Amino acid sequence: MTAFPFTPKEAEQQAVERETPVKFNLVSDFTSGFAEENLSTIAINYMVNHQDFPEQEGYNPKDDPQVKPYEDYYDHFMFSKSSAETTAIIDKLNKHAENNYASPWYHIGRITGAFLDPSSLLLFSKYGQSAKIFGSAFTAEELAKQMLDPVRSDDYVPWVIAGGYGVPYLLNKMSKGQIPANIQQKLIEQMKLIMLLKV
Predict the structure, then answer these.
(1) Is residue 116 classed exposed, middle or buried when 0-12, 13-18 and 19+ CB atoms within 10 A define those classes?
(2) Angstrom distance (rounded) from CA 119 to CA 95
């Protein structure tokens, strides 16, 4: 909604912003996406940049004035033990906000990071064909990412777990001919719909 008074100069500025094409930076967008999704990169970043903050006596993040603008993201601060730790979390949130989520290179970087995760290597072995083993490795990997990156969104953890167990199970059943062809076709159509909805 436009705030009033709205001057003609502001209207011209908005028109120029709307018509200016969005620019994507291949290298920075790709690397930021890769760094957010690849377990090895997240672990290295954790080891290099992690700090242990001393506990501040009587500190409650809910009472900290610097958290006020971030009330919608309070779940990130719930376990903060000091004002310094809260400041570090705010810095991480601001760094995440600088990512160009609209860039296709960012998403290609995330996909590449996910495919180069250690659990993906299981797919090239006989052990990765077992839905139990691959699903467990995939789930453990996602939980490790959640532990190492305190500002990582946990909204899609259930999808990762379901995909880790469900996709190998279905692919194994389909490859062994245990699912009739008409049901296989319906599953493929449903997967296409799901992929279209996620985009």
Answers:
(1) middle
(2) 27
Question: Are 164 and 139 a contacting pair, CB within 8 Å?
Answer: yes
What's the pLDDT tens digit per position in 48-94? 887 788 888 999 888 889 988 888 888 888 888 889 888 988 888 88
- 123 vs 155: CA distance, rounded Å: 25
Q: Identify whether the C-beta of residue 91 lies closer than 8 Å to the C-beta of residue 20.
A: no
Which residues, other chains included, contact 164 with Cβ-Cβ below 8 Å and sequence gap of 6+? Answer: 119, 134, 135, 136, 137, 138, 139, 142
Q: Which residue has the tokens 């709307």?
A: 18
Residue numbers of the domain that contains 61: 19-198
pLDDT band at 1 (very low <50, low <70, confident <90, very high): very low
Number of domains within the chain:
1
Asked, for residue 75, whether it belongs to a domain, the answer is yes
| Helix, coil or strand: residue 77 | coil
